[in-house]
Amino acid sequence: MQLLVSDASPYARWVRVVVSYYAIADIREIEVNPLENGEQLIQANPLGKIPCLILNDGEALFDSEVILRYLDNQYCKEKLFNAAELRWRHMTQFSLIKGLLDSAVALRQEQMREEEGVRSPFWTSRFEQALLRGLTQIELSSMTCGSEVTIQKMGLCCLLQYLDFRHPDLDWRRVAPATARWLLEFETLDAIEQTKPNR
């Protein structure tokens, strides 16, 4: 199988962390630039977005959640999405992290529009405030408690490191100091170290 990714994409990284953590050996990563609309990516995903998983039969799966659910079903013994006793709380936490990733990436897109002179102060502020509100809620939740490595913790780590990578001026640690302390330990996992963005 082929996993189309971009090094800096937090969505792709969430998938890559799961692949690394569960040692899924039959997936080969292929680096693509989604902004270039390359033929391989467009043929697999007409939306031109990553991550995109091309199965051995040629079928393509896209959207990070779809791919994560596929990996959970096929390789992770359904450990990631099926904590029955806390299912709805966990799914809401998953959706919160996914929404925060959306805000973080949208904020990055606003930054890139600055070179065109069309960056919106309104949308910049809206995305920043959404991120700070969401992280405040995470700080008050039990999401980072316990030693178990969960899909939520993996996604949260990808989010926080993306913020440090792309938005170093966003002072998220001010609203989430306990989450910041948790990150210091969680980010030492091999699967996190091996997938850290570098550009």
Q: What would the average pLDDT be, to the nearest integer? A: 94
Domain module tally: 2
Which percent range describes the beta-strand content? 5-15%
Helix/strand structural class? alpha+beta
The portion of residues assigned to helices is 55-70%
Strand order of the largest sheet: 2-1-3-4
Distance between the termini: 25 Å
Poorly predicted spans: none
Q: Examine the secondary-structure arrangement and name the CATH architecture of the largest domain.
A: Up-down Bundle
Global morphology: globular
In N-to-C order, the SSE pattern is EHEHEEHHHHHHH
What Rg, in angstroms, do the CA atoms define?
A: 17 Å
CATH class of the largest domain: Mainly Alpha
Number of strands: 4
Give me the number of helical elements. 9
Explain the overall architecture.
With 199 residues, this protein is α+β, with helices and mostly antiparallel strands. Helix 1 (10-21) links the parallel strand 1 and strand 2 (28-31). The chain is 55% helix and 7% strand. The mean pLDDT is 94. Helix 1 packs parallel to helix 3 (64-74) and helix 1 (10-21) packs across helix 6. A four-stranded mixed β-sheet has the order 2-1-3-4, with helices on one face. It has nine helices and four strands; from the N terminus they run E-H-E-H-E-E-H-H-H-H-H-H-H. It has two domains: 2-76, Glutaredoxin (3-Layer(aba) Sandwich); 86-189, Glutathione S-transferase Yfyf (Class Pi), Chain A, domain 2, CATH 1.20.1050.10. The protein is globular and about 45 Å long. 33% of the residues are buried. It has helices at residues 10-21, 39-44, 64-74, 87-113, 121-140, 151-166, 172-175, 177-186, 190-193; strands at residues 2-5, 28-31, 52-54, 60-62. GO terms for molecular function: transferase activity. Keywords: Transferase. Residues 8-74 form the GST N-terminal domain. InterPro entries: Glutathione_S-Trfase_N, GST_Omega/HSP26, Thioredoxin-like_sf. This is Glutathione S-transferase.
